[in-house]
Each structure stands twice: as structure tokens, then as C-alpha cells.
UniProtKB/TrEMBL annotation:
InterPro entries: Tfc4/TFIIIC-102/Sfc4, TPR-like_helical_dom_sf, TPR_rpt. Pfam families: TPR_19. Residues 207-223 have a biased composition (Basic residues). Residues 53-62 have a biased composition (Low complexity). Keywords: TPR repeat. GO terms for cellular component: transcription factor TFIIIC complex. Residues 70-111 have a biased composition (Acidic residues). One of its GO terms (biological process) is transcription by RNA polymerase III. Residues 41-52 have a biased composition (Basic and acidic residues). This is General transcription factor 3C polypeptide 3-like. SUPFAM superfamilies: TPR-like (SSF48452). Residues 1-129, 170-223 are annotated as: Disordered. TPR repeats lie at residues 295-328.
Amino acid sequence: LLPVPAKSYNKSSMAVRRGRSAGRAEVRKNNPDQILGLEQQLHDKDKDHSLEEQQQQEQQQQVDQINTSIEDDVTDVDLMSEDSLFDEDDLDEEDDELDDEEEEELTEQEGENNREQELSNLTTPRPNQDKIMQRLMNDSISFSELTELMGEGETEICPAASVVDAPTAAEIAQQQQQEEEERAEEKRKRAVADSFEEELSQQQRQQLRRRIGGRAGRGRGPRLHPSLSALMGQANLCVGNSDPNEAIKMCLEVIRQFPNSYMPYETLAMIFEERDKKEKALQFNLIAAFLSPSPGKWIDLAEHYKKMDELEQAMYCYSRAIKQSPSTLAYHWSRVELLERMDNKGRALKCYTYMLKFLKPKQAEEGLRLAKEIAKIHFSLQNYVSARQAMETAFLRYPEHVSHEDINLLLDVLVTLNDYVNSLVVLQTYAKVKLLCQDMSEETFEQLPVGQQLEQATRCYVPPELPIDLRSKLTLCLIMTKTFTLAQPLIDALLSESTEEFGDLFLDTAESLLSVTEGARALPLLEKLLACSRHSLDPTVWRLYAQALVDGGGDTQQAVQAYYKVVELAPDNASARLKLSSILQQQGNHDAALLALTQQEQPYDCQVLLVRCKLLHERGDHQQFLNAVALLLGRHFINIRSRDEAEVLINNKKASNKLEALKELRKSKGEPVEDAEPSYTTSDVPTSEQWNMFVRACKLLHKNNRFAELERLTYSALGSRELMKDYMREVEFFCLQASMANNNSYFAFNLVRDVVVRYPRNNRVWNLLNQVIIKADDIRHNRFLLRRQQKHPEILALSMLNGHNSLVAGTYKYSLAEYMKVFKGRQNDPLASLMLGLTYTHMACQKFSANKNTMVTQAWVFLNSYRELRGDCQESLYNIGRAMHQLNILHQAIHYYKLALDCPKPVAGPGQPDFDLTREIALNLSLVYRKGSINMSRYYVRQYITV
């Protein structure tokens, strides 16, 4: 069977037209000129209605035969009459709905559009209907699968919106003016046609009573054919008569013929619920909610899911209900309450903002409540500007409904933003607070800007009914604007209040006075708090009391005792310890100042540790300073347990990779991954301050030759995320220096290798590498230098070092090639000439070398070139003498040794190494003379070597 369109009733339509004509005649007598526009509109409506009737008549002719066949098929069923479908109660409800529709026609336009769209969708079967029924009857189906098969995915909560897009004050004023003009114009027009509309409304109700076809009534969905309605009635009777199987068959038949009706699904849900199949009943209810245009079914489902603590499903149901009836604010409030329960403030904020679209001008309480909720969320997210804008917009739109609670919330936001002048404006506008001037009338004085009022005001009027919390806010604003003349009477009035009940207001006022260094004015408030048993043991009150004594020029010793009381009551109060230590240092009591900074219990405050390190360093207590620095830096330094862990930290460059590799190493050894370290507070210490303490500790350890501790400290810094972020290069260089100082050539080469790769054209880097190579116990540097030379063949320092390696290895030809490359590049370099001369000397001394005379001659040439470039000094003459000594040309060796002895000795500066070669020269001369003249040999030993 096909869905049957509704019948048309010509008699009802004619009656409506006659009623309209009579109404027009009556109104035309009273208002002949003003009714012309309305007549034209009604004429157009009549034409449209006539076309609609003609279409309905054509449809009626097409379905008459189908109606006849339907009636023959259901002769055994007791059909429900049309009167049973629409009784008098239904008509009364429809009358009430029409009245509501007239009042809410403009505000519910979007909801009507949504419902019409859903009704149009319901006239065609859904593509997955058969699949859904098969799954439901055979097995269960999940919530997400059901929504997907119904073609309704996750419903978006609301369009993207932000309170920042809310209108400004000027826009609101302009909008209000336009709305007033529109309301006045509308009121004038409606006054003309009120009588006419009233007559027509009754006729429209009568027409609706007689109409069964046409547009479906609100909340009713698509009409079932009377035969199918009767079949549904029979199914309900079967349920009542305890014949659920037959009822299920009837419901399935209705679904087969008219699949988009929600009624059979409701009946099936009731049947399965009685069979205690809650899950399947819930799924049928879900389908009924999808097919029904009424949002009430979604609300029932949402409440059910809330009881089951399935909040996401409940959220979906509320969103579907809002989609069907967006102007019902109760649904919105239920949804945002659920979001607040889920602690999803971001989505709640979007929903609150979405509700603004459906607020009516008369809903002031709802508007203010909505603004407060939006402001609270923004305030909790520290988005104070948006919170302020939300509250100010609501205040401008509903000024007559602003309560003291609303004012207090807006003042909290403004005080957080340090906008005390506008806070006073709010109090003047909405709390009836007045600033008065003795020399000026009240009306004239109110015309001045608030800034000038504060400068010239002599008195502040406060309404007696103003709550004390708003009085406290007013006092705070006057204090922060430094108008103490106006604030002092309010402070005196606060002193007369009970500290037991309003102690927090005493504390807030005292803090505001201390923030503007008015300690003397704050002392009476704090003394009264200390006299109260409830606040006498509060460390905050004692701290403020001590600060007031210091700022107000009171007894310093009494302030010290107050700070000691704070430390006693709150040992972890870092600010009190620091302030106490500062006062004690000013008094010259340094031992007590250090003792005040000693923290016996964890967690340790890093700021206190930093100040303690500085004091210990100034006093020269080195060991205590090192202990304090180790405790300060231990928060983010790595405790190195073995040499393997140090190697892991050196070889990995990124801090994250270092820590990850360290964890893997400890796991492989079966050791605990984390170290048992002390706990620290979250007190922020600048990285630069920590770096300064680290550098001081390194210098102190190096100065005292404690190289092993220095190496351990620097390696620990490699695992620090804070230092490695800003000082990675410096930390690595400190590690290199510590390794070289501790003769750890293995780690030193690993560190200097990275420096060479990073700065290949820096000669100081090559000198540093050479120092590491001199002390190296392996030959790893050989391959490294060869690879570097392939990449940078133009760097002569690489050629020099490769020549040294070849010379030490005995491959003189390779070293000769490297030295010659350096010599060609720097012919004025005495070192290149010296190394070439020595290389030829070694080659001439080889057993099987050919042309030894030529090699000696070449060696002599380069050595003399070296002498010319270096000059006559101990170094050059001694080196030439050694070469002659090696070639066994002893007379030349004696000659150059004696010349070297006659040269002036180099003078070493303070702290500089001694380069005097006298003892080395004398020793070599004694060795030369030992074979031929023992007396001369002894002479040089006694003359230059004997101590």
C-alpha cells in the first residue's frame, strides 16, 4: 500500500472564504483607507488557496481506487473513526497551540523550518530501514551504529560562535532604538487590523477542526491512513490483551506499508520492555525518536541515558531535541548542565553562545543568567576580556534587572583586569554609589568624567542597602586609585564589623593597602584579625602584619618576630624566609640570615636555595656553597652512576635522546630507571641565575684541583633540559675542559671531535684537538683526520696534523707530502720548515735509504730556513743541534749547542710555564763529550744541571 494523501474539504474552504469576506466588510466600514493593504494580501492568499484546492481535488481522484481496495482488505478490523482520531480535547489543544504560535511566530521560525524539513524527510523510506529492522529483530545494535544507519551522524552542538563577536555598547544602543521604532510601527499597524484578525482567528480554528488533510499538525508527524491507524489500534489492543506476538506482526505490517511512522516503533518498544529486553526496547525508542517530529521523545531518552551515566549519548539526544525545537531554552540549559557535569567547558561555552540567538527581549533573567555562565567559563579559562564583554553586554541590554550578584561578578572581572576606574563606574551606574563634591552641585559633578570626580570628590555616598561585599569592592577600588580620603571612612566602617564573619574582607582590604605601600593604614585591620582566635594562627595574616610593620616604618624587631612566626606556622613559605633573611642581613646578622634560609623539610623551594647559594658564595664558605648548588641544580641534573651513562650522555646530542638512551641503559642493567631525588616546589628560578651558579661551582672546583668532581658535575649538566636548551654549547665545552683537566682523553676526544666538525676553520679548535691527541691512548684520531681532510683539503692545519701522524708512524714520504703542502701554502711558517728538515733527517738516518747525502743537504737547507724565520734563540739553535746530533755530525752539534747556551734565557711571566732549555742543552752536550772527554761531560752536568 502507498501512503495516502489527506482529503480536501471544499465546504470548509468555502466557509473560511465567507468568513473572511464578512470580516473585510466589517473592517472596511470602520477603516476604509487603512484596510487596502490587508485586502491585497488576503486576495493573494485566496488565489494561493484556490490553487491548492485544485491540486488536492486532482490527487483525490487518483487515490479513490486505492482507498476502496484498502477498505476491502481490512474489513475484519475494527477501524477507528475520524472522531476518535480527533476528539474535542485534541481540538482544544490545537486551539492553545495556535495561540502560542501567534505569540512565538517570529522567534520560532528556525524551529519551524527544521520541523518542516524533517516532515518532508519522513514521507520517503530511509535507505537503511530494512537493514535496521533485520538487525533489531535478530540481534542488538549499538547506539553509534543505529544513528549511522538512520543517516544521522553525530549532531553538531552548535555553530561556531564566540562571545567576542557580541555587539558593542554603541551597537546595542542603536539596535535598541531600531527595535523601539519597529515596535512602535508594528503596534500602529496591528492596532488597525486587530479586530479583523480576531474575527479571522475563530474561523481559522473552525477550519482546522474540519481539516484532516493538508499540513500535519504540530508535533503529529505524517498522518497514517485510517486503515493503518485502525491496524495500530488493533495492535495496541492486542498488547493490552496479552497477545504481544500478534501485536508485533501488526506493527511490522504497518512498518512495511508506511515505514516512516513512529507509532509502531513505540508499540514495539513497549512490548520488548515488558519482556525485560531493555536494550532492544531502547533501540526501538531511538528509531521512534528519529521518526517523530516531537522533541519530547529525545528528552525522555536523554534522561534515561543520564540515569545510566552514558553522558555522550545523553548529549546527542539533547542536541537532537534542540535541533527540532531550538527556541526551547530548557533544552539548552539541560545540555549545558550536562556539559558542566562532564567538565567540558569549551563545548559548554559554544552552547551558551548559541543560546543567545533564541533569547527574547522580555527574557531578561534568562539573558543575565546566560551572561553570567559565559563569564564564569571565560574567567575560569583566564580569558578575562571576553568575560568582561559578556557581562557588560548583558548589563547594557537588561539594565533594570541587574542584581547585586551580577554586579559582584562583573567587579571581580574588572578588578582582575586592574580596571578600577570602570569598576567605580559600574558601582555608580547600577549600585547607586555617588561621588560628591562639597563645592559643586550633584548634577554638575555627575557630568564630569570619573577621573576628575576622583580628583575633586570630598565624600563618597554609599546606599545603606548595599551589601558588604560590594562595599569591600568599592573600598578596594578607591584604595587602588589612591583616593584615601574617600576610602578611609569605608575602612573605618569595616573595622566596626565582625572579624569572625567578615575576616576575608579585612584580609582583602589589608592586601590592597599593602600593594600601594600603605602599611600604616593596614595595621589596624591586621591587628584586629590577630586578636581574633579564628585568624590568630593564619600565616597569611602574620606575613601581612610583618610587611605592614616594615612598610609602615614600625618596629623592625617586631617585624622579625612576625616573620619567625610565619616560618613556624608555614615552613614552606619561601617569601617569608627570603624577607626575614633580607632583614637579618641588613641588621648584620649573617649567620641568622643563613639559618633562616635553611630548609629542613622537603619540598625545597628553589628561590630560597638560590639566595642561600649567593650568601654562601659571598661569605666564602666553599663546601657549603657546592652542596647548596648541587641541591639547587639536582632538580633537573642527571645523577650519573657509571662511566657507561656518561658515554651515553656525550654521544647523544638531543636532551630527549639522552634521557631515553639513559633509561634504556638502566633497564638493560636491571637498575631502577628513576633516581630517588628530593622534591621541589614549582618556584620559578631564571635559567640565567642557575647557569651563573653552575659556572661559579665549576670555577671553584677547577681552582681547587678537584677535577674528578668537576667532570662529574659537568657531565650531569648534559642531561639537564633547562640548561641544554639555552647553554648547550657552553655545557659541552665545560665538559671538554673538565675531561682534559682530569686526563680523560677518551671522552675529551668525543667532545672535541664535535667542536672540530662545527668550527673547522678556527685555529684554536685545531690546537685544542692537538692537545687532546697528545694525551690520547688510542689512534681513533687518525681516521677522523683523514676523513676531515677529504672534506676540507684546503685546511692546512689538517695537513700538518696528518703529517705528524705519518711521521710518528714512520711513513716519512706521506709526512713529507703533507708538510710540503703546508710549506707551499705558508712559506713564512718556521714550523713547516722545521718539520721538513726533521723529516729529511729521519729519512737520511734510515738504513736502506738511497742518496743520503742529498737528504742531509735538503735537511740542512730547511733547518737553516727555519733558523732564519725563527731567529737565533735557544729553541732554533737547540733544534738544529739535535738534528746534527741525530745525524752524528757531532762537531756541528757541539757548535749549535754552545750557541744555544750563550743565548739569553726566556723570561717566564707570573703564572706562565718556563721554556728555558739550558738543562736540556747541557745534558745533550754531556752525552756528546761522554765518549771523548769525560771531564767536559762532568763540567756541563755540574755547571747547568746540578741542584
